[in-house]
Amino acid sequence: MWKRACDTAAKCIAEAKEYNKQRWEKSHMEPDFKEGDQVLVSTLKFHNLKGPKKRRDSFAGPFNVIKLIGENEVEVKSERSFPGNTQSFQKKNPTPPEILEVEDSPGPVKKIIKARKLRLNGRDQRQYLVRFESQKADKDKWLAEDAIPDGNLHSRRFRASRGTEQSHQ
């Protein structure tokens, strides 16, 4: 029984191989191009075509065969303009835009949000997170008390609003 099963399996495998070989030979024939034939060219390796790859045409053409170069190589002639085969013109360099002067100061201080102590050059330095008038929260900056316009006034208001326990952090 084992021998019969092995023979049947070998026969099925041989038939499958023969069937696949016939299908391969039927669909994979060598092209026989002649001069003057019209052929399509695959655009798979064309990197000069614009647009999304999904929406590009798979083939371009038809093109006329001018000369046979090798077994599977031919020289073709484009009868119409084709993207990427256009004349190139010298491009003028645009004039650079004018440099605008940017203000260093973002504006008057609206309020102090947080305080922190840093050790700089062997000394403790208190810095404050400052929000400026007409600026969003992402423009907040850490500044030393002496770098804040009216720093004494704003720091006193901040300490008073936070209470005494947070002013000594």
How would you describe this structure to a colleague?
- A 3-stranded antiparallel beta sheet has the order 1-2-3, with no helix packed on it.
- It is built from 3 helices and 6 strands, in the order αββββββαα.
- It has 169 residues and is an alpha+beta fold.
- Among the domains are: 31-81, no CATH class; 109-167, OB fold (Dihydrolipoamide Acetyltransferase, E2P) (Beta Barrel).
- Strand 4 (109-120) and strand 5 (123-132) form a beta hairpin.
- 2% of the residues are buried.
- The chain has helices spanning 2-27, 151-162, 164-167, and strands spanning 38-42, 59-68, 74-77, 109-120, 123-132, 141-144.
What is the annotated CATH architecture of the domain at 109-167? Beta Barrel
Largest sheet: 3 strands, antiparallel
Low-confidence stretches: 86-91
The average pLDDT is 79
Compute the number of strand runs: 6
- Strands ordered across the widest β-sheet: 1-2-3
The level 1 CATH classification of the domain at 109-167 is Mainly Beta
Question: What fraction strand?
Answer: 25-35%
Helix content: 10-25%
Remind me, CATH topology of the domain at 109-167?
OB fold (Dihydrolipoamide Acetyltransferase, E2P)
The total of helices stands at 3
* Spatial separation of the terminal alpha carbons: 90 Å
Helix-strand topology string: HEEEEEEHH
| Global shape | elongated
Structural class: alpha+beta
Our Rg estimate from Cα atoms comes to: 39 Å
Please outline the helices and strands:
Elements lengths: L1 H26 L10 E5 L16 E10 L5 E4 L31 E12 L2 E10 L8 E4 L6 H12 L1 H4 L2
Antiparallel strand pairs: 1-2, 2-3, 4-5, 5-6
